[in-house]
Inverse folding.
């Protein structure tokens, strides 16, 4: 298999380390050519390493590879029915319940559910067939109507607001519990009209998106991806292309944050294509913004700027009260657009303009309602200031970011604080006293002593 991948032993080790790092596993930091030599000689890798190797090979060969294909034992793998990334195996409700119950009942599930690039190949051309299969699996005894639909929509609004204030780790399993009990029951119910059925599937898709977003924010990327897949499938069954594209956009966001710029761009393009003529101006602006992030990640400055300009024009023409509930609830506003623009320009190395956009985001945001995002924006602002040699300004803003994190449970903010320490460590013994105090504060935060 190494020969098929055209890898040296060093290249193979680097690919496996990258997969482990993506899944927050530090145990393979020292993986090198000697480890690969042992595997080739027949030594069984321990823990999740067989899955990391299989995913690395899958990406290299651009085809699904399982640990058993490589001759490894499967005790570190998920059962096939629990993988949660198959668009076809069962109807969407069955897969949603299977993944949700595994998440609730098996503590190791979140660790074993690896992020997969193969699952990003969204089968847009066969969605109607997938949706028809799901409809044939429905038809329960419980009557479901407008009251139940309204209840799910209200829960989405409440849980989304709490997510922004307290982070993805807050009440994540409560959202999953709601999905696998109340919502799964509704989806298998009996609807008086086709419009009611579609409305419930749309509402359920939003909750599944939220479960995925919470997993993403908690840095449980494989788990998040599984909920995103089910969210897209539920939106598809509701014939809600704009909502499906909203989740494709989330998948693009996750991909670009994990360093997969080309795949992020393809997902963002899919969101625009699938929602064409069905999405509102703000929704289309959101999807377009992620194409900008994708272009920036692959170094295409011209297309990045064009996408940003287009997104700004779309957002300026939007009527907030006419936007769908998922745009109103998640609040894609000037502040959010400026945040994503700043990230794209940061990736392009345009630090001065990136700083301007982050400042714009900070000054236009409702900081109380969007506490997690505010902390992240301020941390990114400090990062670009540090990169420009302005350590004192950066230290001030990093301290402000830490001020906002009390009570927030988020893998992304945790990563931002780890980045503070990484950046400051580059100064070595030259680190000024004011920055040393920040480093000590960041270390205390990471130890759980805020």
């Amino acid at each position: 298999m190494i020969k098929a991948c055209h890898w040296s032993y060093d290249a193979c080790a680097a690919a496996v380390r990258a997969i482990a790092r993506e899944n927050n596993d530090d145990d393979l930091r020292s993986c090198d050519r000697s480890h690969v030599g042992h595997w080739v000689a027949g030594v069984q890798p321990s823990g999740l390493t067989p899955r990391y190797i299989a995913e690395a090979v899958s990406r290299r060969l651009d085809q699904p590879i399982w640990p058993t294909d490589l001759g490894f034992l499967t005790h570190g793998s998920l059962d096939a029915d629990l993988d949660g990334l198959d668009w076809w195996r069962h109807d969407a409700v069955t897969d949603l319940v299977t993944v949700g119950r595994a998440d609730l009942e098996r503590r190791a599930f979140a660790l074993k559910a690896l992020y997969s690039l193969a699952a990003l190949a969204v089968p847009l051309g066969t969605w109607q067939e997938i949706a028809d299969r799901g409809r044939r699996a429905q038809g329960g005894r419980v009557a479901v109507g407008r009251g139940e639909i309204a209840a799910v929509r209200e829960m989405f609004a409440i849980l989304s607001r709490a997510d922004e204030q307290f982070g993805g780790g807050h009440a994540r399993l409560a959202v999953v519990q709601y999905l696998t009990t109340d919502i799964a029951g509704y989806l298998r119910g009996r609807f008086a009209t086709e419009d009611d059925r579609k409305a419930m599937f749309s509402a359920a898709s939003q909750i599944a998106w939220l479960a995925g977003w919470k997993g993403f924010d908690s840095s449980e990327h494989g788990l998040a991806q599984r909920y995103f897949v089910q969210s897209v499938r539920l939106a598809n069954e509701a014939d809600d292309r704009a909502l499906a594209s909203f989740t494709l956009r989330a998948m693009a966001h996750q991909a670009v944050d994990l360093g997969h710029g080309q795949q992020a761009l393809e997902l963002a393009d899919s969101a625009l294509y699938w929602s064409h003529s069905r999405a509102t101006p703000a929704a289309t602006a959101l999807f377009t913004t992620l194409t900008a992030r994708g272009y920036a990640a692959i170094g295409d400055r011209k297309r990045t700027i064009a996408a940003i300009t287009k997104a700004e024009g779309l957002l300026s023409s939007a009527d907030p009260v006419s936007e769908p509930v998922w745009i109103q609830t998640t609040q894609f506003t000037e502040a959010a657009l400026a945040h994503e623009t700043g990230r794209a320009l940061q990736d392009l190395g345009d630090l001065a303009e990136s700083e301007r956009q982050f400042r714009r985001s900070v000054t236009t945001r409702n900081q109380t309602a969007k506490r997690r995002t505010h902390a992240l924006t301020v941390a990114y602002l400090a990062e670009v200031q540090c990169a420009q040699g302005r350590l004192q300004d950066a230290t001030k803003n990093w301290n402000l970011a830490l001020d906002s994190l009390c009570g927030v449970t988020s893998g992304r903010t945790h990563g931002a604080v780890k980045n503070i320490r990484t950046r400051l460590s580059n100064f070595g013994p030259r680190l000024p006293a004011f920055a040393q105090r920040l480093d000590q504060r960041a270390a205390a935060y990471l130890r759980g002593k805020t």
Summary: The beta strands are 143-144, 190-191. The radius of gyration is 22 Å. The CA atoms of residues 194 and 378 lie 46 Å apart.
